[in-house]
Amino acid sequence: MSLYCIGDIQGCDSALGRLLTTIDFSPSRDTVYLLGDLVNRGPESAQTLRRCIAADGSIQAILGNHDLHLLAAADGRRKFSRRDTLLDVLQAPDAAQLLEWVRQQPLARTHTLDGEQLLMVHAGVHQHWDLDATLRHAAEVEAVLRSDGLSLFLQAMYGNTPAQWDPQLSGMERLRMITNVLTRMRFCHADGSLDFDSTESLAEAPEGLTAWFDLPGRATAGTTIAFGHWSTLGDLQRPHLLALDTGCVWGGCLSAVRFGNTLAERELIHVDCEQAQQPG
Hints:
- This protein has 280 residues and is α/β, with parallel strands linked by helices.
- 28% of the residues lie in helices and 19% in strands.
- It is built from eight helices and twelve strands.
- Helix 2 (45-54) packs across helix 5 (95-103) and helix 6 (131-145) packs across helix 8.
- The radius of gyration is 17 Å and the shape is globular.
C-alpha cells in the first residue's frame, strides 16, 4: 500500500489520469489525497469529480477556494469570472450528484503514518491553531456546507474581513475567517493578519509580509503539513512542510508525493500539463 498527496488539479483531469498511471495507482491498494481546487480553469472539471467518486474512497479530497466557488455558482450566489470553466459541471446530467459529493468533502484531513500525523489543507493553517484546533474549526464550516444553511453561508462567504483571528468571533464572520485561512491564505502581516493581495514567490515577498508557515511561534511547527493553492512556491519541501501546487493549469506540472514508511521518506513525481490558462 502506498500513500500519496497530489496538488491542485483545477479541472485538468487528463493530467491527473497520466499522473495516476505514472505512479501505478491501484484503488484496491493505494490511498491518494487531493489537496483542494479539484475544479475550475481547466477543461475537465466534471470528469475530475467523476473520477474521485468512482474511486470509492481510495481517492480522498479536501476543498479549496475554487471548489467552494463551484458551490456558490451552482447556488446562484456568485457570478462567473472570465477565467471560470464550471459549466461542464453545472450543465452535466449528473450535476446534482457531483455537487452533493463536493459539499460532503472536508476542509482538512489527517493521516497517521508510523505514529506521526500528516495534516492536509488547501491553503494554510493559522499561526495560533494547533492540529486539533485546525480540525475543530474546519468542522465548523463543514457542518454548514452539509446543512440547510448552505445558501446563507455561500452568500456571506466572500470577503476579506475579518483579517485577524479572534476566538470570540461568531456567526458568518467566524465562518468566513476560518474559510479564508484554510482555502485562501498565503502571506500574513507581522501581527498575523491575512493579506489577500499578494501571490508572489517567497523570493519576491512584498516588504512587511511573511509566508503563513514562517510566522514565529506557529502552533503547528512540529506537525507535517501538505498544502496546495500557491503555485509560485513550486514544490517547496521542508522537514514538516510540503507545498504541491506546481501550476498544472498554467502549463506547469501536476505533482504527487509518495510517502515511504515515514512522513520523512518522500518521492516527488511530476507529469507535464498542457496550458489551459494564461497566467496574469
